[in-house]
Amino acid sequence: MNSRVVDLLNTYGLPDRLIDAQEQLFDGNVNDIDFSTFDNMINEQRKKSMTFIKDSLLNRKGGNN
Fold first, then answer.
1. Distance CA 25, CA 34 (A)
2. Is the full-model pTM beyond 0.85?
3. Distance between CA atoms of 34 and 37, rounded to whole angstroms?
4. Are the C-beta atoms of 12 and 41 separated by less than 8 Å?
5. What percent of the chain has pLDDT over 70?
6. What CA–CA distance (Å, rounded) separates 24 from 22?
7. Please, what's the b/e burial string for 3-32 (b: 16 or more CB within 10 A of its CB; e: otherwise)?
8. What does the alpha-carbon distance between residue 54 and residue 25 come to, in Å, rounded to a whole number?
9. Up-side HSE of residue 30: CA atoms within 13 Å toward CB?
């Protein structure tokens, strides 16, 4: 199994969305996703990523790398 997919699903509280080759695509027991919580988590990750990119670019411009 692709560990990146597993890590992402676990990070966002969606491990039940992982379907392996032996499972049916839809068995009727899939929980609804609370998208408001998911959106908040994605926005936090987006902020962290943007901060990292900006800091990296500023450090590069300053000749620190």
1. 20
2. no
3. 6
4. yes
5. 74
6. 7
7. eeeeeeeeeeeeeeeeeeeeeeeeeeeeee
8. 41
9. 15
Q: Helices (DSSP H) in 12-34: which residue ranges?
A: none
* Residue 57 pLDDT exceeds 70: yes
pLDDT of residue 44: 93
What's the average model confidence in pLDDT over 27-54?
84
Task: Report the pLDDT averaged over residues 11-28.
Answer: 72
Q: Name the residue with tokens 């597993």.
A: 6
CB 33 within 8 A of CB 14: yes
Structure tokens belonging to residue 51: 């901060």
